[in-house]
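Input record (Table S2, row 215):
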Amino acid sequence: MNLILLGPPGAGKGTQAVLLQKKYGLCHLSTGEMLRETVAAGGEIGKELQSIISAGKLVPDEIIVKMLQERVRQADCAAGFILDGFPRNESQAHALDEMLAREEKSLDYVIEFRVSDEEMIERISGRYACAQCKEGYHDIYKKPKIEGVCDVCGGAEFVRRADDRPETVRKRLESYHEQTAPLLPYYKERGVLRSVDGMADIDTVTGQINAIFGA
Ligand code: AP5
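Output record (BIS(adenosine)-5'-pentaphosphate complex):
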């Protein structure tokens, strides 16, 4: 099964992708995460990417498409993939179509997360992750069971994303509405678009997605 999770920053794409990856054995391809790994590795490219991401702008399509093309061929994607953060504009959607045709794969579902922008600013400013295993948490909605200790790996150090400041989030939301939301009719016409209420709690959203798959 091959999926796209489509929604604005903070809609819960990453949260649900991790759960779907575990349940269905799919690979989770987050272009944002791949870019952050490149930034963390340093070098000139890392610095350039960091300045684009911190400004809330989109990274050039050719970098993203090349990165994804290499990843989709790896063995852990054999049972299917979850695209989280890609495609983000019309040109990336066409590049994906070409990639799927070349790899003889098809797209099963595009899941749209419907949310309110103002709530997303609050959600993102409360988000943090374990520095060691990257498990995601939230100041209000998803706290570790023991305060200050990661549920998954026991780590005690946590990090917040550099692009999660409210003014950058506003730019990312603008970019979503201008460039990414116009893809919704494109996938609707192809009969693969489904929607979930991203304002519901995490378990309810998971239930809505499972219902789409008939699970
Ligand atoms: P990326 O990393 O893709 O960020 P994003 O799309 O803006 O999405 P987020 O990761 O911020 O949100 P999410 O929907 O995954 O929410 P999450 O599950 O964490 O991209 C970052 C940057 O990289 C871009 O701005 C761009 O510069 C660049 N980039 C990436 N891809 C690119 C591309 N294809 N082309 C060009 N540039 C690209 O949830 C948020 C918080 O809310 C969490 O704390 C979570 O615990 C909580 N939460 C989740 N669901 C719920 C719920 N239902 N109820 C309550 N709380 C919830």
